[in-house]
Amino acid sequence: MDKRPKGLVKRLQDGENVIVAEGYLFVFQRRCYLKAGAFVPEVVLEYPELVKQQYREFVRAGSDVVLAFTYYAHREKMRLIGREDVIVEANKTALRLAREVADETGTLMAGNVSNTTLYEINGTNDDVVLSSFKEQIEWAMEFNADFIVGETFSEHGEAMMALEAIKTYGKVPAVITMASHQCDVNGDVGTMDGYTLQDCCKLLEDAGAAVVGLNCTRGPSTMLPIMEKIRKTCKGPIAALPVAYRTTKEEPTFQSLTDPSDGSRIFPDDLECRTSCCKDFFEFGKKCKEIGIQYVGICCGNACKFTRSLAESLGRKPDASRYSTDMSQHYTFGSDSSFRKLYTVDLKAAI
Questions:
Q1: pLDDT (tens digit, 9 = 90+) per residue, 313-334?
Q2: Which of 208, 233, 218 has the alpha carbon at shortest distance from 291?
C-alpha cells in the first residue's frame, strides 16, 4: 500500500487548502543563528538539529509541507560569505532533514530556489542564473522533493527561467511566487521588468506552473488587494504568503516600514515594533478563503503561533491547537468559580 501523502496538485484539484510555513531566515535571525544582510542559512551547517526541530514545529503548528531551508543557499550567496566550498553540504543537509521530517509526519517535502541576485533584464547573465537553478533543483530531486518552490522573484524573466528549470530538471510541480515591490506598471503593482503582477502570474500559469502568486515583501493588508487582481486574471490555484508585519498603504512593503516613534527605517533589526499578531493571520486566512486562494502561508516574520492561527482560520485543529489561548482559565480575566473577587473584580478594574 502506498503510504505517500496525497500530492500537491491532487489536493488542489480536490478543493483543499495547502498551508506552507516559511520564514526560516527571520526565525533564525531573531534567535541569533543567522546574520541579517547576506541572509545566508549557515545555521543548516552549524546547528542542523535546530533546523530539524523548526521543521517539526511548523508542521505541528499546521503546515502541510516541509519546505527545505535552501533559500539563499545558492552559489552567489555562499560565495558572498566565503563558503562556496560547502554549498553542496548546506543544500543536501537542509534537504535530507526536510525529507526526514516530512516522512515522519506524513507531510509533503518541497525543494526551494529563489532570486539569484544575478539576473540581468538584458539576458547577459542567463547562463549563470540557469546554472544556479539547475544544481539546486537536481539536489532537491536527490531527496525526492514532492514539488519545488521558486520564490521572491522581482522580475518576470527570472521567474520564468526558474519555472522552465523546474520543468526540465525537476519534472515535479512548480510553485512560482513573486515579490511585490513598489514598482508601478500602468497604475498597478508590477515587476522590475515591466509586467503587472497579475499579468506576470497569468503568463507563468500558462507556461505550466502548478501554482502562482506572491510571497514576501508585503503584509496581509497590502498583499491581499493584489491577490484579488491575480484571482480575477488566473484560472488555476494561486498562492499568498505575506510577511508577518503590519504594512500600510503609505508603507506597503516591510523594507519600507518606519519606527512610529522616530520615523527611522526598521528593516531588518527593529521590525518587531510593527509585527503582526495572531488575529491578523486568522483574518487573513478567512479572507483567502473568500477570495479563493488555496495555497497559503507566511513568509518572513513567521512564528508557530501565526501558522496555528492561519490553520485554525481554515477550520483546522493542528497538534499545537491543544495550547491555543483559553482566557477562561486566567485568574483575573477568567470565569472559574474558584477565582477570588480580589482579582476578577478589583484587580481587573485596576489594570
A1: 999 999 999 999 999 999 999 9
A2: 233
Contact present, 62 and 316 (Cβ < 8 Å): yes
- CA–chain centroid gap for 75, Å, is 21
Among 252, 258, 255, 267, CA closest to 184: 252
> How far is 340 from 11, CA to CA, in rounded Å?
50
Rg (CA), the chain: 21
CA atoms within 13 Å, Cβ hemisphere of 273 = 14
- pTM metric for this prediction: 0.97
Q: What is the pLDDT of residue 1?
A: 40
Rounded Cα–Cα distance for residues 33 and 280 (Å): 27
Type of residue numbered 39: F
Kindly report the backbone phi and psi dihedral angles of residue 166, in degrees, each rounded to the nearest multiple of 5, phi listed first. -65, -40
- In 3D space, the residue among 122, 184, 177 whose CA is nearest the CA of residue 154 turns out to be 177
Whole-angstrom CA distances from 16 to 149, 210, 273, 315 are 19, 14, 35, 12
What whole-number distance in Å separates Cα of residue 181 and Cα of residue 8? 28
Is residue 8 scored above 60 in pLDDT? yes
3-state secondary structure the chain: CCCCCCCHHHHHHCCCCEEEECCHHHHHHHCCCCCCCCCCCCHHHHCHHHHHHHHHHHHHHCCCEEECCCCCCCHHHHHHCCCHHHHHHHHHHHHHHHHHHHHHHCCEEEEEEECCCCCCCCCCCHHHHHHHHHHHHHHHHHCCCCEEEEEEECCHHHHHHHHHHHHHHHCCCEEEEECCCCCEECCEEECCCCCEHHHHHHHHHHCCCCEEEEECCCCHHHHHHHHHHHHHHCCCCEEEECCCECCCCCCCCHHHCECCCCCCECCCCCHHHHECCHHHHHHHHHHHHHHCCCEEEECCCCCHHHHHHHHHHCCCCCHHHHHCCCHHHCCCCCCCCCCCHHHHHHHHHHC
